[in-house]
Amino acid sequence: MVVKGKKSDLKRFMKAVEGKEKEMNDDGKKVAVVPLSFETIHPTPKVLTNTDSPSKDEKLNKANIEKYGYGDWYEFHIGEWGTKWDLGSDTRMTIQKDSILYSFASAWSPPISIVSKLAKRFPMLSFELTYCEPGMAFAGVFTAEGKEEEDACYNQSDAVAEYRKIAEPLGCWWEPEEEEEN
């Protein structure tokens, strides 16, 4: 994801989106603060954090939906972030003159919902999220600035050239297999 704008605005943005807690590695040792955290940007309500997905408690599920709009953490993450999990320690940030490049992997789908929220919260910045999901063979570019948004998403089987143009630089392109004749 590329975020563009004035240096002062980018500095404020970086502070506003970085993880608040140090992430632990597999050995239980603290590692660096994650430079971009969905949990920081749009926190999961504490009540939903430890819920089961799908919820086994219909009464609790109904109460959570009435109060938060979602019955459990998974529904909240998909609805509010656009993806299942928050980002982890493999997230990388590269600061350039008038932009910041964040490199990360999200679970199963691009975090379009969270980028949309960021564009509205920081209307002086522009956002470009380039994404690829090779398992489901789709790729695209989501751009947002203020309330203006555009998502150009392509499926490998329907738009091979467009898909390849996006997927190849991200390292998730492979030649489609030809179907065998019977």
- Strand arrangement across the biggest beta sheet: 4-5-1-6-7-8
Task: Report the count of strand segments.
Answer: 8
Oligomer description: single chain
Overall spatial form: globular
For the residues shown, what is the average pLDDT?
A: 88
Q: Give helix and strand order, one letter per element, not per position.
A: EHEEHHHHEEHEEEH
Number of helices: 7
Strand content: 15-25%
Major sheet: 6 strands, antiparallel
Helix share bin: 25-40%
Broad structural category: alpha+beta
Low-confidence blocks of residues: none
Termini separation comes to 44 Å
Rg (CA only): 18 Å
Q: Which tags fit this structure?
A:
six-stranded antiparallel beta sheet; globular; alpha+beta
Describe this structure in words.
The chain is α+β, with helices and mostly antiparallel strands and 182 residues long. The protein has a domain at 1-16 and 92-174. The chain is 33% helix and 24% strand. The chain has 7 helices and 8 strands. It has helices at residues 7-17, 38-41, 46-49, 58-68, 73-81, 112-121, 160-170, and strands spanning 2-4, 22-24, 30-33, 92-95, 99-103, 126-133, 138-145, 148-155. The strands form 2 sheets. Strands 4-5-1-6-7-8 form a 6-stranded antiparallel β-sheet, with helices on both faces. It has a two-stranded antiparallel sheet with strand order 2-3. A hairpin with a 4-residue loop joins strand 6 and strand 7. The longest helix is centred in the N-terminal third of the chain and has 11 residues, at 7-17. The model has no long low-confidence stretch (mean pLDDT 88).
